[in-house]
Structures are given as structure tokens and as C-alpha cells.
């Protein structure tokens, strides 16, 4: 980073005085479009978007040379199912059912990529409908789970990434994902994990994004305090159900074309719809610009869990044993590589060690 950019960052953080950053300054009326890689430096991104925490979209020129844009797409711009089958047919992938709401998300199952592609082909043949519902392949850890072909080149703008550096060092997990699904698949209203940043590139297809700056989601809470599942639902017009919605500004809307790259700032709630058969690469990342947001969020979550748990802890005999019985299988289920890392699973390095770790939290 050059001296001037560093000085800019220092005065930015001095102004914040440790408070977590929302969108700094006035929320823009539209999402900026960055046309040319030749005239857009890391410092431009850092000062214009990363520090102020506002979204932007980069033109397809930024992803021109990517292997996946050449090999995963047919000359007609559609997903190249045959290439994906040849290279990844036997890989197990997570698949969400967009037609079924489970809390504010969708239930997921696991299947072979070949079975998902066969579903997708049938879905197209059936006029974009299927008795199996509308299935969306989400959060496939291609980098973690396959020794990948040349798929993408990490853009310099997103290269300061403490989140994936940390997980790479532990060698068990990452936050680098592939999404793919037919027209009509979508991601419900959410903010990203740990209030991380994310970037998203369409390898083929198009997405429609709705963005709300940090804090605006408060005006979208329903009369029970819950956040909406779908911000496009007519139910939001019912002022008895959503009494504060009139105070919410309209979202920033964006249509992301094939090859374009979207920067999703920290703590911005968003909802995303695939307008065509779409494959995208989506990574979450954290660095010094959003670390305070992440820390604040984790503290808030811990307090909420402690409060919830306190209602049960004193009424249940053998509380700590219940914690162990739940926590260890959960770690193993979510971290496939964890079995060989006793210091991660909490397997005791000495008798009673892991119990101390969990008890400290609750
Ligand atoms: O593309 C999608 O369906 C969701 C993407 C998203 O939420 C993200 O990149 O943060
Ligand atoms: Fe997201």
C-alpha cells in the first residue's frame, strides 16, 4: 500500500474511534460500474469502496482470462454440463431447495454433481419446473475439496484475505464457493457470514441483486422482530405485519451480467435471484477494514446465545455432558478434515480439556 493510501486509512480509522463501520458517508443512489482494469488500482478500490464499505461492480474485462470462463461455458454462453460431468461428476455437492423455507433459509441435501446436473437438464426439459422443486447448488467448496483445474485468478482487490489465510493454515476449511442453478433459483435475504465481505463473479448467466445498507434491515423487521425471508414478497406491504417498512429506503438494485464481478460490502443485507441458468464463484473474506464489524457481530451473537442458554442451563442436570454430546459431532459434520486435528475438534489433549473449552463459553 502506498503512503498516501495508508494515511487515508489511518485518518478513516481515527474518525471511527473503534466503532464498527456501516456504510461511511451518504449511501450512494446507484452501484458504481468499474469499466477498465488498466485504470483502476488497488488503492482506488481501497479508498473508493473497501474503506467506505459501499458496493461496486467490475466489468467482465476483469475476469477475461479465467479458465472457468473458457472451459465451463458453451459457445452459446450456457453452462457446459459435459465438461463439468467429466471433471467433477463424482464430487458430492450441497444443494438447497429454494421452494422450501426453513427459518430464513432453505433446507439442504447432499448429492453427486452428476445427479444434480441430470436434475438440471430435466428441469430445463420440463419448461423450468420439476416435481422435485427448484434446486440450487450452493456453497460447493471446490478449492477445498478438489485439486482444481485453472478455474480463476484471485483479483488483487480481494487479495488481503485474513479469513481464508487462517483456514488455509489450519488446512481444514475455506470460504471459497461455487454456486450454480437454473433460472429462478435464488438466495433469501441475508448478510454474509461473520459480516465478512464477499465477491461474486458470474462464470455464465445473470443475477439480480437487492442491496440494503447496514442498519436499513431494522426497518424491515416484522411485528415479531423477525427479518424477512423474501424482500420482494407482497406481504411486506402489509403495515400491520411490517410496521416500520415505510422508514426503509428502496434497495440498491443491480443486474450482474456474465463475467462481471460484484463487491458485497460488510454487513449489507442482500437478496439474489438467478435470471438465467447461472454459475458463479463467490468468496467471503475479512481484513483490517471489516475486522471490527466481525468482532462486534461475534460478541453480539455470543451474548444472544448466552442469554438463550441461561434459560435452560440451570434447569437441566448434566448440562455440560449435553454440550459435549451436541458439539463434537457437529464439528465433525461441518469440518470434513477435522478428524485429524485434535486441537480443533476439542478431543482431549489431556483429560477434561475439551469440556473446559466449551464450559468457558456458556
Ligand atoms: O448468488 C447467490 O445466490 C448469493 C450470493 C451471495 O449472497 C454473496 O455472494 O454474498
Ligand atoms: Fe451473501
Automatic annotation (TrEMBL):
Keywords attached to this Swiss-Prot or TrEMBL record, sorted alphabetically, are: Iron, Metal-binding, Oxidoreductase
In alphabetical order, the GO MF annotations are:
2-oxoglutarate-dependent dioxygenase activity; catalytic activity, acting on a protein; metal ion binding; sequence-specific DNA binding
Reaction catalysis annotation: L-lysyl-[protein] + 2-oxoglutarate + O2 = 4-hydroxy-L-lysyl-[protein] + succinate + CO2
GO cellular component terms given for this protein: cytoplasm; nucleus
Q: Which cofactor does it need?
A: Fe(2+)
Q: Pfam families per the record? A: JmjC
An example GO biological process term is: positive regulation of translational termination
Q: Which residues form the JmjC domain?
A: 143-302
Subunit and partners: Interacts with ETF1. Interacts with the ETF1-GSPT1 complex.
Family stated for the protein in its record: Belongs to the JMJD6 family.
Instruction: Report the PANTHER family cross-referenced here.
Output: 2-OXOGLUTARATE AND IRON-DEPENDENT OXYGENASE JMJD4 (PTHR12480:SF6), ARGININE DEMETHYLASE AND LYSYL-HYDROXYLASE JMJD (PTHR12480)
- What protein am I looking at? 2-oxoglutarate and iron-dependent oxygenase JMJD4
Amino acid at each position: 500500500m502506498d503512503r498516501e493510501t495508508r494515511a487515508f486509512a489511518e485518518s478513516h480509522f481515527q474518525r471511527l474511534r473503534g466503532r464498527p463501520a456501516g456504510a461511511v458517508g451518504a449511501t450512494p443512489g446507484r452501484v458504481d460500474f468499474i469499466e477498465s482494469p488498466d485504470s483502476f488500482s488497488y488503492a482506488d478500490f481501497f479508498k473508493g469502496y473497501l474503506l467506505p464499505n459501499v458496493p461496486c461492480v467490475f466489468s467482465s474485462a476483469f475476469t477475461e482470462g479465467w479458465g472457468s470462463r473458457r472451459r465451463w461455458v458453451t459457445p452459446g454462453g450456457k453452462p457446459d454440463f459435459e465438461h463439468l460431468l467429466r471433471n467433477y461428476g463424482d464430487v458430492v455437492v450441497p444443494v438447497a431447495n429454494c421452494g422450501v423455507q426453513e427459518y430464513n433459509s432453505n433446507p439442504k441435501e447432499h448429492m453427486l454433481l452428476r445427479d444434480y446436473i441430470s436434475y438440471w437438464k430435466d428441469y430445463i426439459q420440463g419448461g423450468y419446473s420439476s416435481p422435485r422443486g427448484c434446486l440450487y447448488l450452493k456453497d460447493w467448496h471446490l478449492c477445498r475439496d478438489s485439486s482444481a483445474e485453472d478455474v480463476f485468478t484471485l483479483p488483487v482487490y480481494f487479495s488481503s484475505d485474513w479469513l481464508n489465510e487462517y483456514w488455509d493454515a489450519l488446512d481444514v476449511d475455506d470460504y471459497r464457493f461455487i454456486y450454480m442453478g437454473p433460472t429462478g433459483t435464488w438466495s433469501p435475504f441475508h448478510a454474509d457470514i461473520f459480516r465478512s465481505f464477499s465477491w461474486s463473479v458470474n462464470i455464465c448467466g445473470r443475477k439480480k441483486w437487492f442491496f440494503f445498507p447496514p442498519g436499513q434491515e431494522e426497518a424491515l423487521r416484522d411485528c415479531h422482530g423477525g427479518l424477512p425471508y423474501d424482500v420482494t414478497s407482497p406481504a411486506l406491504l402489509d403495515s400491520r405485519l411490517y410496521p416500520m417498512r415505510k422508514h426503509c429506503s428502496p434497495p440498491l438494485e443491480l443486474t450482474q451480467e456474465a463475467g462481471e464481478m460484484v463487491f458485497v460490502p460488510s454487513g449489507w443485507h442482500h437478496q439474489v435471484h438467478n435470471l438465467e441458468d447461472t454459475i458463479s464463484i463467490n468468496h467471503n473474506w475479512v481484513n483490517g477494514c471489516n475486522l471490527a464489524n466481525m468482532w462486534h457481530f461475534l460478541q453480539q451473537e455470543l451474548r444472544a446465545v448466552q442469554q438463550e442458554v441461561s434459560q435452560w442451563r440451570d434447569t437441566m442436570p448434566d448440562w455440560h455432558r449435553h454440550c459435549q454430546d451436541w458439539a463434537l459431532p457437529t464439528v465433525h459434520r461441518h469440518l470434513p478434515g477435522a478428524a485429524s486435528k485434535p486441537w480443533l475438534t476439542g478431543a482431549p489433549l489431556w483429560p477434561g480439556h475439551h469440556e473446559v473449552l466449551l464450559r468457558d463459553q456458556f
